[in-house]
DNA sequence: TTGAAAGCGCTAACAT
DNA sequence: ATGTTAGCGCTTTCAA
């Protein structure tokens, strides 16, 4: 900047004014500055400027996801980027791999880079470690799961409603023996989906068979095994509600392994690529990760504009996508 | 930092030494500093420190992808993150949407934040705009596609070899009428895959039918239409080599629409989720995006350690994954 | 409309 | 082993 000023024959402050598009610089000087900047291929240093700038904004935010290469997370990522880009804000992103210790390290790494805000998919059972950042005025928004121990903005899918919808859809198809395959029970969203399933069953007055409710299924392999166990039951289910993506895939593999994919109805929670190309095509309750990301990003910026905003809990609706697997009628064992 | 120094009763420099784990601070003082830092929830400001620090490193890099929510790109992203994390480096990522103007804007946005290096999936037909950054000493590595107009490190899949492998696999299965569905011809990787196809056909001494070579197919819909046209030919192909992911999916949709998915062989370039669950399961030449990202990140850091390194061209091998669709024998029209 | 001086939070270089 | 001073590239404040 000093070099540019010298070359343009003006003071350093005038260069600063031109670069920041401040008013009150004569056209002649502005042109000279622009020319000098071009000749020296001058690139302003945002990090230096932000050191003194009012509000000390760095025009960057941090985004913590389970993993950047997980399709659900990646869609959130893209939506956040799109909102941030409109504001000239860059986004740091990182993967926690669902590890609370990683989560904390990454928050520290981003904080030390003075991000203006943080969007976090919380993994831990406790986010009280965030209190110092919050007191320092850093806005934090949680996505996909609610925060624990602190009252923060968060945006979540309507998990109970989605699970009720999925279950009710199967009930409406005439099923009564509907199995539930749930993720680790300590995960808040898994618990909400479980509740939704229970509510729908209760509302329909269908008695619950505990043998059909399997929790703590957490990946493809365990879902496959759980489904095989269900199918081997004396009175197997005629329909399955798989509460999560990987569980849905594992269930499909198991049904195919037994050649039952056209006999046993299946509704999955969360949509996935090519679900429509499978045979049968898979009926799902789709989440809207794009909307989740968009809402979270909007919220960060709203809070940046007005730090006094009360914490808001945003719920994003789900949508039943009928494709075939969920419409298979009850079939005698 | 000043506050911490005051509270600990030491000089600001001593705090700096403790925070940066420099040697030569007595245990007593170090403890006092740590205590004071904790009491004030002091978070060091990396951006301020980097202003003066030797080498002016910001411990951040920029990553430009076609889109962060594209699975191929997301896998590269994760691999880059993993390498960067080991070095305590944070990554800014952004999506170009294949737009050269976005690419340039994002490079400027990241440069003004003084990233230590840039990993770019180039979209434009010319990357000479990077010359000032390169002269300023910013390492740049290209991924997935070679740079144009500048000689830079880059890491690419072995496209010609992968395309030859796919084509030869079909030839070995007895096919002679093998169609080629190619992406936009001006994309360098598309051209390389086209070449690989031509080479394999020539090596096998199979005459080329121009009616079977369709280029400038660039999405699912156009691939679907192209395939329908191929199937309507007086002498349709008995096998198809789809040179890219979306093209493969479009081709599958077309084959199914005509009920020909078990008659016409198909090999796709690039693997995709659930390819093994389709019927028939899809044979592909898989790329290794994780390895591409890892190699690119390693390269950035190697160059950061030694800026004098000559530009290196790294090729990542592909792998034929046999699943069924590519092993369908030639079928009379 | 323009500029000079101070200082953001930190580290380098050089004392002591 | 510890401290002092200068200054990174910029913006702020205030003066001209």
Structural summary, described in words:
With 333 residues, chain A is an alpha/beta fold. Chain A has 12 helices and 12 strands. The first copy, chain A, has a 6-stranded parallel sheet, with helices on both faces. A 6-stranded mixed sheet of chain A has the order 7-6-8-9-10-12, with helices on both faces. In chain A, strand 8, helix 11 and strand 9 (265-269) form a beta-alpha-beta unit. Chain A is elongated. The N and C termini of chain A lie far apart (79 Å). Chains A and B meet through helix 4, helix 5, strand 2, helix 6 and helix 7 of A and helix 4, helix 5, strand 2, helix 6 and helix 11 of B. The structure holds a DNA duplex (16 and 16 nucleotides).
Write the layout of secondary structure elements.
Two copies of one chain form a homodimer.
Chain A: H1 2-8, H2 12-19, H3 27-39, H4 46-52, E1 60-65, H5 71-86, E2 90-95, H6 100-112, E3 117-120, H7 131-135, E4 140-143, E5 153-157, H8 159-172, E6 178-181, H9 188-203, E7 213-214, H10 220-231, E8 239-242, H11 245-257, E9 265-269, E10 283-286, H12 289-305, E11 313-316, E12 319-321
Parallel strand pairs in A: 1-2, 1-3, 3-4, 4-5, 5-11, 6-7, 6-8, 8-9, 9-10
Antiparallel strand pairs in A: 10-12
The structure holds a DNA duplex (16 and 16 nucleotides).
Largest sheet of chain A, order of strands side by side? 2-1-3-4-5-11
Q: Helical percent range of chain A?
A: 40-55%
Rg calc of chain A: 26 Å
Structural class of chain A comes to alpha/beta
Mean pLDDT of chain A: 95
In percent terms, what proportion of residues of chain A is strand? 15-25%
């Amino acid at each position: 900047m000093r070099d540019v000023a010298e070359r343009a024959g003006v003071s350093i402050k005038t260069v600063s004014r031109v670069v920041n598009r401040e008013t009150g610089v004569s056209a002649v000087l502005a042109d000279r500055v622009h020319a000098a900047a071009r000749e020296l291929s001058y690139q302003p240093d945002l990090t230096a400027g932000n050191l003194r700038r009012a509000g000390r904004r760095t025009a960057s935010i941090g985004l913590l996801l389970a993993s950047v290469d997980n399709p659900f997370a990646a869609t959130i990522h893209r939506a956040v980027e799109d909102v941030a880009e409109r504001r000239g804000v860059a986004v740091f992103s990182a993967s926690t791999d669902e590890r609370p210790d990683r989560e904390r390290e990454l928050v520290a790494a981003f904080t030390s880079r003075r991000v203006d805000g943080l969007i976090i998919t919380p993994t831990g059972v406790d986010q009280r470690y965030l209190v110092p950042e919050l007191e320092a005025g850093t806005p934090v928004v949680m996505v996909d799961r609610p925060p624990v121990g602190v009252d923060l903005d968060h945006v979540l899918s309507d998990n109970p409603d989605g699970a009720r919808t999925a279950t009710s859809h199967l009930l409406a198809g005439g099923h009564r023996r509907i199995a539930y395959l749930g993720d680790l029970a300590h995960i808040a969203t898994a618990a909400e989906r479980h509740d939704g399933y229970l509510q729908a069953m209760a509302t329909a007055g269908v008695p619950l068979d505990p043998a059909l409710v399997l929790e703590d299924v957490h990946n493809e392999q365990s879902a496959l095994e759980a489904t095989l166990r269900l199918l081997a039951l004396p009175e197997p289910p005629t329909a399955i509600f798989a509460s999560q993506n990987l569980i849905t895939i594992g269930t499909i593999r198991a049904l195919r392994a037994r050649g039952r994919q056209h006999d046993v109805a299946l509704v999955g929670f969360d949509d996935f690529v090519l679900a429509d190309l499978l045979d049968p095509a898979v009926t799902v309750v789709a989440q809207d990760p794009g909307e989740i990301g968009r809402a979270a990003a909007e919220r960060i910026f709203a809070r940046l504009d007005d730090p006094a905003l009360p914490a808001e809990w945003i719920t994003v609706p789900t949508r039943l996508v009928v494709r075939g697997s969920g419409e298979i009628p009850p079939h005698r064992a």
